[in-house]
Fold:
Amino acid sequence: MKKIGIIGIRGLPALYGAFDRFVEQFVSSHKIKSQKLFFYISCDISFKKFKFDNNIVKRVFIFRGLSFFILINYLISIIRLYFYGVRCFVFFGYGAAPFFILLKILNCQIICNPDGIEWKRPVGKIKELYFKICEKLLSSVNITRIFDSKVIERYYNINHSAKGTTIYYPSIFENNKILKNINCTKNFERFYIIGRLLEENNTEMIVNTFMKLGKKQKLYVIGNSNNFFKKKIKPLILRSKNITYLGPIYDQKKLFNICRHFDYYIHGHSVGGTNPTLIESISLQKKIIAFDTTFNREILKTDSCFFKNENELLEIIKMKKYRKKKIPVFREEFTSRHINNAYLNLIN
Structure:
C-alpha cells in the first residue's frame, strides 16, 4: 500500500477553504478508496476535537500557528510523515518550498499545487518576498506541479520555464440534483457572494455597491469572519437594509439548499487562479457577475457580465445586464471524477 502525505490544509473535516474541501472529497471518494493508497494528513491540533472517520486516512495533529510558526509546522509535518514511511508528498500551497530540496535528496516524490500567485496578494513586504522565493524554488526544483488555471500555467511557463498540469477544482454540489432557480418572491432578486471575505476578493466593493441599491436587489454574504471583515465590512452590513450576513456554512447539504434559492452569484476574486466557489455557482446553474480577470474569463468565457470597479458593477445591476447573459457551461474538467483521476494519475 502506497503511503501519501498531504501537507498544507488546515485539517479534516474541511472547515476552511478550497484545498481542505478538495482533500476531503478526494480521500472520501469510492474510486480513491478502491486504490492501494493510505493517506497521512497533517492537521492543526485544534482539529482533534472533530471526528473524521475514514479507513484510508490517518490525521497527524501538529500545532499550526501563524507566520513563522507555519514554516515550523511544515518542517515537523515533513519529518513526522517521513518517519511514518511516506515517500510521496502532496503539498497544497508552496509555503513549504524551502524543504523541497531536502525531500529530493531523500528521493521523495513531490507534488505541489501552489494556489495562485501568492506574492500579489496584499500580505505585506516580508511575506511578499518570502512567496517570491517560494515561487522560484517551486519552479527550479524537479517536482510535479499542479496549476488550478491555464493562466497560472502560462505564467510559470513564461516567467520560469516551469512545466506543470492544469487541474481545476471540483464542485461540491455536482452530485446533487440541480434545480431551477426558485423565486419565492417576485418583488426582489437575490444575489450572493461566498468564500473568504478578504480585501483581494473585493468584498467591500460589492457591499458598497448594494448599499446604493434599493430593496429590490438583496445581497447575501456567506463566509467566515476575519479582522478585515469585522473592521471594514460588518459595520456597512449593519447599516444596510438589503444586505444579510449568513456567516460561514460548512455543511454541504445545508449550503446547497440555501444557495439554490439565490438568483445570481457575484464573484469578486481578483488574485490567484480558479476559485471553487465559481465552479460551484456554475454547477448550481446560476448566472454570474464576475470581477474582470483572465482567471475568471478562462472559466466563464463570454457567458457572464464582468466589472472592474464599483461604478461598472452598479451599472450592471441597475441596467439588469446580467439577465441577458447565458448560464456558463459546467464542463467535464470541472467534475470530481475527472479531477480525482488526474490527481491519481500523478500520484501513481
The two ends are 12 Å apart (CA to CA). The first strand starts at residue 2 and ends at 7. Confidence is low (pLDDT under 50) at residues 176-184. Residues 189-329 form a domain with the Rossmann fold fold (CATH 3.40.50.2000).
